[in-house]
Amino acid sequence: MSGWLRIVGLGPGAEALVTPEVTAVLAEATDVVGYIPYVARVAERPGLTLHASDNRVEIDRSRHALEMAAEGHRVVVVSSGDPGVFAMASAVFEAVDSGPRAWRDLDIQVLPGITAMLAAAARAGAPLGHDFCCINLSDNLKPWPLIERRLRLAAQADFAMAFYNPRSKSRPEGFEKTLQILREECEPERLILFARAVSRPDEALRVAHLAEATPEMADMQTVVLVGSSRTRLIERDGSPIVYTPRFTPE
Amino acid sequence: MSGWLRIVGLGPGAEALVTPEVTAVLAEATDVVGYIPYVARVAERPGLTLHASDNRVEIDRSRHALEMAAEGHRVVVVSSGDPGVFAMASAVFEAVDSGPRAWRDLDIQVLPGITAMLAAAARAGAPLGHDFCCINLSDNLKPWPLIERRLRLAAQADFAMAFYNPRSKSRPEGFEKTLQILREECEPERLILFARAVSRPDEALRVAHLAEATPEMADMQTVVLVGSSRTRLIERDGSPIVYTPRFTPE
What we know:
The structure is a homodimer. Chain A is elongated and about 55 Å long. By secondary structure, the first copy, chain A, is an alpha/beta fold. A 5-stranded parallel β-sheet of chain A has the order 3-2-4-1-5, sandwiched between helices. A 5-stranded mixed β-sheet of chain A has the order 7-8-11-9-10, sandwiched between helices. In chain A, strand 12 (about 230-235) and strand 13 (about 240-245) form a beta hairpin. The first copy, chain A, contains 7 helices and 13 strands. In chain A, helix 6 (about 145-155) packs parallel to helix 7. The longest helix of chain A is centred in the N-terminal third of the chain and has 13 residues, at about 60-70. Chain A has helices spanning about 20-30, 35-40, 60-70, 90-100, 115-125, 145-155, 175-185; strands at about 5-10, 30-35, 50-55, 75-80, 110, 125, 130-135, 160-165, 190-195, 205-210, 220-225, 230-235, 240-245. Helices cover about 30% and strands about 25% of the residues of chain A. At the A-B interface, helix 1, helix 4, strand 5, helix 5 and strand 6 of A face helix 1, helix 4, strand 5, helix 5 and strand 6 of B.
């Protein structure tokens, strides 16, 4: 038995953003497990079984991966972006924590990836170039009042902010409430970026002032970045540059 | 004239964590610019000039890179980790913002990298698996009271936290004050991780409870991760797993 489990990040979409470390473990794997669109990014080959599953079954998927590793398979759990940022790593460790004692001693490693907020920030310039926070706006797994509290405290701390999962069909109103909270806490000129499908063929980047932002500017493929009060815009031909200076005066 | 400027992240240290995109632009560059230890990670070759400079000259370095790109060179500015997280991207855009108008229309792109906090989190498990914030503890470029305010608000928001630049010889007391603030805001059992030189030969990871943490556990090579109130530790043979569950109850 020489099974192992690797929980890896495939980055935001482009092959050129997958780390060589991740490419190497995919080449050694016997089984790849993950959400359908992420497993679809892994090339089929003899000796590799792809196990694609639907959204919201993360714990079942994790247990399946752990069972196979315990049986001696070389299993890769794939996430987009980084597996530790609102992705599969926490789900797998929840399954380990509540599972058989033997699972703890499996050979498990997490391999990092380029998470969406950093790919989006790179496209825009450097909006996260100073202190920032990262919030999952989905209230599937936490109460909405906690999200609201975090948004207000983050604005009061003058963090730049990155929002994952801003909006879905099942939660049409959450992002509208988010924009309303930001308008109560921040000035109307605050810069906000909508980065959709970064590094993929349908990539789109939009920069707005908070006063003009509307809920329809985001969907589940979008990462939203909100500048701090010090974030600046450099106008030029083509898309502007958005960056947060390193220096904050007294 | 077909000069360009790429501001790239080399990741935390291991070659296997450098993205293919970054490797490709390094192969096309005529000039590489950066802080001495990061430029030392780029292989010398004919046709490539390495421009290594000391710490704290980020704006001079940025202007030099922009001048060379304007003259037609293919210039890569290197940072460790991700260039947009407390690294060179903001410095370059500060130089663009205050420089000649023509610099705005240069072909400039930021290429993301694996930032230290995500590499450190991956090694430990998934401590940043829920909402989190990222704070540079150096007060070289911002007043200490702003850092203190951000620490307290982040703790009150129950964010997991990542700290860059926790401690240096010129700022021996800052991290001690940080631990004191955390002890005032968080419970003594709060999990704290010290991740030094992740992915490099001298890598070291240490997990402690906040009550036991001391300033000497961190240096400038260390990223410090602080769990939220929900972060858990899974004991096992070898180093424990630290993760933050996805679910937060009402």
